[in-house]
Design brief:
The relative contact order is 0.04. By secondary structure, the chain is mainly alpha-helical. The model has no long low-confidence stretch (mean pLDDT about 80). It contains seven helices and no strands. The chain is rod-shaped. Helix 3 (about 40-75) crosses helix 4.
């Protein structure tokens, strides 16, 4: 009689709770057997999954560090305050992080443009009514005149 009550009430109770408790009947197979593998194949499969997960995590950490490097570069360029989170991400990646090649090329071009703008000729080109070629010719002529005068000088 107790078996009958347990069977009737227990089945309904299981349905009511959604089967939260897992009771393995004695005839149920192990995980490996359920997936159609031997125990050794199942262990190799689990190990492979773990290795793939570690590779994904390492790749993700590398990408995060690259992004942090880009952000820190722009913070340096525009003199913004540094972020400790970015520094931590770069250190976690092992400090082997470089700027992406496309960004490095863009930065090199920007640096060249800034160097040109900071030069004397770059500053003169900002003045609107100045002909740079004419200025170069005048400067060359002046230098040639100075050389001729120093050749004719008796003290030199």
């Amino acid at each position: 009689m107790a078996f009958m009550v347990k069977h009737v009430v227990g089945g309904q109770l299981k349905n009511l709770t959604g089967g939260l408790t897992e009771e393995k009947p004695e005839g149920e197979k192990s995980e490996a057997a359920a997936q159609g593998m031997t125990q050794e194949e199942f262990e190799q499969y689990q190990q492979q999954l773990e290795e793939e997960k570690q590779e994904r995590e390492a790749h993700f950490a590398q990408k995060k560090a690259e992004r942090a490097t880009v952000r820190s570069h722009f913070r340096d360029k525009y003199r913004l305050p540094k972020n400790e989170l970015d520094e931590t991400q770069i250190q976690q990646a092992g400090n082997d992080v470089e700027l992406p090649t496309e960004l490095a090329k863009m930065i090199a071009e920007d640096n060249q443009e800034e160097a040109h703008k900071q030069s004397v000729l770059g500053q003169l080109s900002n003045i609107q009514n100045v002909d740079i070629d004419q200025l170069k010719d005048k400067a060359q002529a002046t230098l040639e005149d100075l050389k001729k005068q120093t050749e004719n000088c008796s003290l030199m």
